[in-house]
Design brief:
The complex is a heterodimer of chains A (311) and B (441).
Chain A lengths: L4 E2 L10 H35 L2 E2 L7 E2 L3 H8 L1 H33 L4 H13 L2 H12 L4 H8 L11 H29 L3 H10 L3 H28 L4 H6 L15 H10 L7 H25 L5 E2 L1
Chain B lengths: L2 H19 L23 E6 L6 H17 L2 E6 L4 H8 L8 E5 H9 L4 E2 L2 H5 L8 H4 L2 H4 L5 E2 L2 E2 L2 E6 L1 E6 L4 H5 L5 H13 L5 E2 L5 H16 L3 H7 L9 H15 L14 H7 L5 E5 L2 H5 L9 E4 L10 E3 L1 E8 L5 H10 L3 H9 L4 E2 L11 H9 L2 E3 L10 H14 L5 H19 L1
Parallel strand pairs in B: 1-2, 1-3, 9-10, 12-15
Antiparallel strand pairs in B: 3-13, 4-13, 5-6, 7-13, 7-14, 8-10, 8-11
Chain lengths: 311, 441
């Protein structure tokens, strides 16, 4: 067995030929992307920060209020609850997704017909979240499919599935269901890269499945995990449409406050359609929540920063 | 990644994250409310953004009117059938030069975006147009719609309604002919009826409890029908929140609490997804439904065979005066329009008898003119509007930023869904409202 070599993740030493070549291509390659990025993302983002310092209905006069919107939003118990929901999605649903994805990867690794199974578990990710929102009523209404099925087993008092306090746990379960397959596919690709002889070495050395997992599989897929964690963080904070359609908003209302995330809070503040838009408060909530999440991303990057193992 | 790119990465990442959900915007324009946005020189075309989507019955009637107007004036109407999200598209558009000349939507949606931001042009030219028989538009619209309803600002109308909607307690007239003859008029008669229905083995009331606006009808309409248009808005405007502790509010909150305690709402109304419960009602699994005048068209496709839509107004102890919810759907002209007069002309054109009759007979909605015969399903609702001494809007036209959806609905939902009683409702409303106004100051 060839020894595992560790390589530096940082680029080669300054002044090397490769580094010089890279520098030469920096402007032509990065320049156009940077320009578009600045125009389409950075400038609107700065505009959003500017709007957040005003009281503004989206059109008409703007009144400068300084950091008042930030103060209001931070002290608003509904924003706090919405942000907690965002964190629940990020950490609780995220942990469940990764534990399940990893477990599925382990089960599927040696399973017959695994590529077919991989396609099947990936499938829910391809379906628009709106479909699950619509299905929620079909499944969980008092006279829906789930209660009808429970009735066959003699359950006369089924839980109030769609009570407003139960909607968010249901949304989390749906997110876990739809997302696990996606990360399973990525992690499986990472695990598939591990050369089979390492497993043979483990077998010869008498390693237990746990030891194999701990000493071979996890270290060799750590960088894949790191990437997946960042991907999940970025996508989890944007979860919006499934919450919007899951409860109360099939064209006639807005979801119950109990299921709002910070993205929904932002949207309702700006676009509820029921009252004068408050763009200043909406952008303030977007800026606050995204700054906090940015801190989390930096933290996660540090947690997952390890020297990649080359094999 | 090179050193430079690596150094840039965190900055870009943060910026991208912010941009992902934050909205950029222009500073907008402070305009003269009611100012005339353009001249009357005949344009080649005018643009119109609609509340309706292609294929909806109202859209078909409007499209027909537009085609006739195009032929008459020789001006092309560039119509965009935007649907219900029109105001969300209109708000950012108002900061650009690409502003439609004419828009239509409900009063509740247009007022926050156009009226309260002063981004409208006066609709007076439309009210001054004369239609058939040389009658002016202003004379065709009942005065009580215009007076005190929020349609006018500083004496000038900013919106021209072409249809109206209302609410009522709906029932199947084929199953309950007795309610057509003698509907309950007072609250006591109503609760007695609910008891009778229960005793007869029927579920008295259906309610999609996940829709805050439907739940709110019980309190808001109950309150305004007792105390008159503007009374709920006045309650909301109290910055101390103490008005919520008044006897009038307590009586109304206790009325709603008593309904919940009477156990008259359909099972699972607190844990279902719209439109599950109105479907149950339309298939005769509940006797009554408090909802809008859109119910016959909305539930018509799945209603039980032989279902006869009939309604009676929400009972009230107020027997001297009649106050009826009358929501407007109508046109408004953004102040940046450069064809104000022509846009007003098109708006007025839809009030001709021909199109108003089509709104009534084909779209099965209530036309704004009161000289049009409405569909039999809506006759009861129309009669209550005709009887009204004064009319009020949805939520009594309250549109303070975030108040309805963040303060009133969440707490009121708890009351209707049976999670809190009248006392806690009152205390929480008083406290939340005081906090709301403190935050707004």
């Amino acid at each position: 067995m060839p020894p595992l070599r560790r390589r530096r993740t940082r680029s080669s030493a300054p002044g090397s030929v490769i580094e010089n070549q890279r520098r030469k291509f920096l402007v032509p390659f990065v320049g156009p992307a940077f320009l578009f990025y600045t125009l389409l993302f950075v400038l609107p983002a700065i505009g959003a920060v500017w709007v957040s310092l005003h009281k503004w209905a989206g059109s008409g006069p703007m009144e400068f209020v300084g950091l008042r919107n930030y103060e209001r939003v931070i002290n608003d118990s509904q924003f706090q609850a919405a942000f907690v929901n965002t964190l629940l999605l990020l950490f609780v649903a995220g942990t469940a997704i990764f534990v399940l994805a990893f477990a599925l990867t382990m089960v599927l690794r040696t399973m017959w017909g695994r590529s077919a199974v991989r396609s099947i578990i990936f499938f829910p990710h391809l379906i628009n979240a709106l479909v699950f929102g619509v299905l929620a009523g079909f499944l969980f209404n008092p006279t829906g499919l789930v209660n009808t099925a429970l009735g066959w087993f003699g359950v006369d008092n089924p839980p109030l599935w769609l009570a407003k306090e139960n909607i968010f746990p249901l949304i989390m379960a749906t997110v876990i269901f739809t997302t696990t397959g996606y990360y399973t596919t990525i992690i499986m690709a990472g695990v598939d890269r591990i050369p089979p002889y390492l497993y043979e070495d483990c077998a010869l050395a008498g390693a237990t499945p746990f030891q194999r997992l701990w000493h071979v599989v996890i270290p060799l897929t750590w960088d894949v995990f790191g990437t997946c964690a960042i991907l999940w963080t970025l996508s989890s904070i944007k979860i919006f449409e499934i919450i919007w359609v899951f409860g109360g908003s099939s064209g006639a209302g807005i979801p119950p406050v109990e299921s709002w995330t910070s993205a929904v809070y932002t949207y309702v503040t700006a676009f509820s359609g029921q009252s004068t838009p408050a763009f200043g408060a909406a952008t303030a909530s977007a800026v606050i929540s995204l700054l906090l999440v940015s801190v989390l991303v930096v933290f996660l990057r540090r947690v997952f920063r390890r020297e990649a193992i080359e094999f | 990644m090179s050193t430079v790119a690596r150094k840039l990465a965190p900055t870009l990442m943060v910026a991208a994250l912010v941009a992902l959900s934050a909205c950029g915007g222009d500073t907008g324009n402070a305009t003269d409310p009611g100012g005339q946005g353009g001249d009357s020189a005949k344009p080649e075309s005018i643009s119109y953004w609609s509340h309706w989507k292609e294929g909806e019955n109202q859209q078909k009637v409007l499209a027909e009117a537009i085609a006739a107007w195009e032929e008459e004036t020789g001006i092309t109407v560039e119509a965009q059938w935007q649907g219900r999200t029109i105001t969300q598209k209109l708000t950012p558009a108002l900061n650009t030069n690409n502003v439609p000349d004419l828009v239509d939507s409900s009063f509740a949606r247009l007022a926050p975006v156009l009226a309260e931001t002063g981004q409208y042009a006066s609709m007076q030219p439309a009210f001054e147009k004369t239609l058939e028989d040389d009658t002016s538009v202003a004379d065709l619209i009942p005065k009580k719609y215009i007076e005190g309803s929020g349609l006018q600002i500083d004496g000038e109308p900013w919106m021209l309604p072409y249809t109206i909607s209302s609410e009522a307690i709906w029932f199947n007239g084929a199953q309950h002919p007795e309610l057509k003859e003698s509907p309950p008029k007072t609250w006591d008669e109503f609760t007695a009826l609910l008891d009778d229905l229960k005793a007869a083995g029927e579920v008295p009331l259906a309610l999609d409890g996940d829709i805050g606006g439907y739940n709110a009808m019980w309190f808001v309409s109950g309150y305004v029908r007792e105390h008159g248009p503007g009374s709920f808005a006045e309650l909301v405007a109290d910055e101390s929140g103490e008005s919520w502790k008044s006897d009038e509010v307590r009586a109304m909150a206790e009325r709603v609490e008593a309904l919940v305690q009477q156990d008259v709402f359909i099972d699972g109304y607190n844990a279902s997804k719209f439109p599950a419960q109105q479907q149950e009602w339309a298939t005769n699994k509940a006797a009554l439904l408090l909802n809008g005048s859109w119910i016959p068209t909305e539930t018509g496709t799945y209603a039980a065979e032989g279902f006869e839509f009939a309604s009676f107004p929400m009972p009230t102890e107020q027997q001297d005066k009649v106050y009826t919810r009358t929501d407007f759907i109508g046109f408004a002209i953004p102040s940046k329009s450069d064809a104000v007069d022509w846009a007003a002309d098109l708006a007025a054109f839809t009030l001709q008898k021909e199109y108003q009759e089509k709104f009534a007979s084909e779209a099965k909605v209530l036309p704004v003119r009161d000289d049009i015969e409405v569909s039999p399903e809506l006759a009861g609702v129309m009669s209550e509007i005709e009887k009204a001494d004064a009319v009020y809007q949805q939520n009594d036209a309250v549109s303070h930023p975030g108040y309805i959806e963040k303060v009133f609905w969440p707490i009121h939902n708890e009351l209707v869904l049976g999670n809190i009683g009248a006392d806690e409702f009152i205390n929480r409303m008083a406290e939340a409202q005081a906090q709301y106004w403190q935050d707004q100051s």
